[in-house]
Amino acid sequence: RLQVDLERSASINQSLGSRVAQCSLNGLADFLFSFQRKVEMFHEGMQSGMLGDNEDGYVSRTIALVNCCPPFRGFVQRCAQWDSSVAENSLQRGNKSLDFIVHHGVKVLSERLYLHVRPSFERLVKRKWLTNTEPYDQIEFLIKEYFKKYHRMDSPPYQLLVAEVHHRVVMEYLRSVMRGRIICTSLKMRKRMAGRLRDEGRRIKVLFKDLESPSSWLDSALSHISEIIQLEDVPSIQMEVGVLVREFPDIRKKHVSAILNIRGTTRQSERQEILNVVKDIESIDGPGSGSGPGSGALSRLTRDRALFSEVPVTSEVHCLNLGLSRVALTASSCFSTFRPRPRKTR
Fold first, then answer.
1. What is the reported pLDDT for 316?
2. How far is residue 62's CA from residue 70's CA, in Å, rounded to a whole number?
3. Is the pLDDT of residue 63 over 80?
4. Residue 204 class from Cβ within 10 Å (0-12 exposed, 13-18 middle, 19+ buried)?
5. Into how many domains does the chain fold?
6. C-alpha dist (Å) from residue 59 to 55, 106, 114, 191, 206
């Protein structure tokens, strides 16, 4: 109805069209803020159990609420484009309410999916995982099942949802890798682990390509890590690490160090040669980071492609424990040599 009134008034004269556009936008901004509050109350009620525990109903209603946003946003933009004198405050308020509804809906749906796949992520990158594809099979199956419902979401909110899930899946997979629950002790074991990472990384890529994810930049992380684990000579590893750093500017030396732990690289000289390839990106985020040429562009790139910065490294703790245990064993053996032995009785 508002769209019709705007078009009719605009056909009469420019001044009337501008006034109708401004009044419509002011009223719409107020309505959208009220709508936002109702949506917040709905989610709070569902999460507290006040409105029942029907998950399918919750998902359907959340998608329906999000699907209201693209038409509203289109009309907001239509009013704003009609006359540059339209109140900027109303435009910002309207878009802010719509952004909240969309992002909150995306967060709710992605979290509900993650709660179901989380147990399978806990089983990744362990010794049994090397010969068992069931954990990842289950993750992929659940994602496909959930997206049969999520496909009812309209674009562009759907792209935000699939990008969020894509990012979460790759990030959680990397978390499993960085826990360092597997330390390769032979070339055969390295090849087997690299092969599994490569295969499952390829499956993730195909899965989210089919789901029309706009975040294809995530797909190369696991393939680069698999190559670092499998390669044997230091120059080739250095080259692969360099590519990984360029594609993911938020990676840190601790992440590369964890990968070297996994592949069983224990020689300190080799480790240092490889780690030297990692640029000191941390200095870019420190004080005065904006003074260097191109630093602003790199900072924006880091924010847009944040992945490893959200992945903690815990494998170094295991390495420390391993080192301490070796020291303890050595000390114990030394003391045992000085321990008096009981005399033999004849």
1. 46
2. 14
3. yes
4. buried
5. 1
6. 6, 10, 14, 42, 25
CA 110, CA 142: separation in Å to the nearest integer? Answer: 12
The pLDDT tens digits for 176-227 are 999 989 999 999 999 999 999 999 999 999 999 999 999 999 999 999 999 9
Give yes or no for a contact between 198 and 240, defined as CB atoms under 8 angstroms apart. no
Instruction: Look up residue 265 and give its amino acid.
Output: T
Helix (H) or strand (E) holding 226: helix 220-230
**Unique residue bearing structure tokens 């050595």:** 330
In a domain, 15, yes or no: yes
Counting beta carbons within 10 angstroms of the beta carbon of residue 304, is it exposed (0 to 12), middle (13 to 18) or buried (19 or more)? exposed
DSSP E strand boundaries for 5-55: none
* Residue 215: inside a domain: no
CB 225 within 8 A of CB 197: yes
Quote helix, strand, coil % in the chain, to nearest 5.
75, 0, 25
Is the distance from CB of 25 to CB of 87 less than 8 angstroms? Answer: yes
Radius of gyration of the chain (CA): 28
Instruction: Dihedral sign for Cα 312, 314, 319, 320, please.
Output: positive
Expressed in angstroms, the distance from the first to the final Cα of the chain is 111
Condensed to tens digits (0 to 9), the pLDDT of residues 292-311 reads 444 454 455 555 678 999 99
Q: Is residue 13 part of a domain?
A: yes
Task: Tell which residue, 257, 262, 266, has the closest CA to residue 226.
Answer: 262
Q: Residue 56 domain-assigned? A: yes
Altogether, the residues listed in the chain come to a count of: 346
By residue range, what is the domain housing residue 39? 1-116
Coil, helix or strand at residue 216: helix
